[in-house]
């Protein structure tokens, strides 16, 4: 039998049956009573929280169970209950069929059939009731489903909101993590800063202590300063007095300096504006040969003694003496220092504004270069380096009196009447030619020559070395060239005393002449002859010029040789001249020595006019 809800016709059948209640009698009433009692029993089943033991109830009843709740429980009476109810209403004998009707017992059979019909009707009723209950349950369940869907939708909305919130919270968490990272960094920094702060505090404390100490010192020094200021005021007054004195003394000093120059010059004039010193070189093995005699008591005389053998042998050998007097004669033992002492006064004159010329004359190997240049070792330095040293030292001292000096150096060689710049540093192929020029104010200059400004002794010594290199290069090309050429070192000196408006200008000229030995014309040829002619010409012209100056002749043949032309400014009226005559002591040099001494003696006899300083 179907448990689906009973169709309307069946329900009508059932209700009609019910309306015709008399068909069922008390049994029908019992069923109705049962229906009233069903609900409380179903409710009792709910209390247990378990599905009621209704037995084979199928889909229509069981579906609402999914929702759980009271609807599921209010299923209505179980079939067991119904069966029990029906069974109790049907008389056992008729229904059970235990007793088989006789074929003829039609009445009995009808009665059984009626009993069966009643049973079925009761069942139908019960099912209908059950269906009603189920319908209610379905409606309730549906309502609940709708509510639950709404709830579900709300909850979904809520969940999505929660999810959004969660997303937002995740962002917050990231930020929080970052902030916590920053925080730990800041904490570290803070701890560093705290450490530094502590150090600073310690430092501050120590500095405060130091400050206190300094304040104390300051107050002590302030009182000292006050005392010093008083002293300073007194000292300033004293200084001002002293300054006046210094100015006065400077004036006196300047006057004294001018007086010194005047007296110095007077002494030089008294000594003669041209002086001749004789210097005798030692023999190679040391000492002196017999033919040269230097009286011990006197350092101004030299005697050349010549022994002439008797030709006949009957008479004894005769000795002929040649005596010469000079301003000074230096023996073979004389040191470079001793020699320079004698001419240092002349060097001083150069700074005072007088032209000074110093030259060495003598045969080859007699010691001219040794006298003028010497060697690089201090004790053996010659006239040129010593003069330079003296000049720079004296200039420095005069600086304290307001003098300022400028120095210009040049170094020239005269070989075969040709000029050669010994300070030239360019290529040999580009060596320029030189000419001597005389300006309108009688100043002699050489074209294309190196005029080097110098301000120290070392600088000049460097130039002398350069000149020697240039000379030795030429020497390699021609043997003994240096012996056959004149070398002229010139230092132009310009001084100015700005405060006193005084100027001076002079030239110190130091000359190493070519060897003066004479050669027989028959012995010299070609270049040698030319050289000899040039040397002899220039040296003899030097003698002629000095002699002309001494005799105050109207014409002085300066231009007859390059040497005298170049030395024009340093010879004559406005200059002081010193000549070294160098002597070789070997007996075989006797002739040349005699010639040299004779030449020097002539020069020594000359008195060249009175020198006047080049002052403006
Ligand atoms: N007074 C002296 N004391 C010691 N040695 C000297 C003296 N004079 C010269 N001599 C030495 O004699 C040698 C020749 O001297 P020096 O070269 O100066 O002669 P010189 O006249 O310049 O010759 P030259 O004309 O060839 O240049 C050198 O070795 C030098 O050192």
From TrEMBL:
Keywords: ATP-binding, Coiled coil, Cytoplasm, Cytoskeleton, Microtubule, Motor protein, Nucleotide-binding. GO terms for biological process: microtubule-based movement. Residues 1-39 are annotated as: Disordered. Belongs to the TRAFAC class myosin-kinesin ATPase superfamily. Kinesin family. KIN-14 subfamily. Gene3D superfamilies: 1.10.287.1490, Kinesin motor domain (3.40.850.10). This is Kinesin-like protein. Residues 7-18 have a biased composition (Low complexity). ATP binds at residues 362-369. It holds the Pfam family Kinesin. Its main location: cytoplasm. SMART domains: KISc. Residues 273-606 form the Kinesin motor domain. InterPro entries: Kinesin-like_fam (IPR027640), Kinesin_motor_CS (IPR019821), Kinesin_motor_dom (IPR001752), Kinesin_motor_dom_sf (IPR036961), P-loop_NTPase (IPR027417). It is found in: Cytoplasm, Cytoskeleton. GO terms for molecular function: ATP binding; microtubule binding; microtubule motor activity. Residues 110-252 form a coiled coil. One of its GO terms (cellular component) is microtubule.
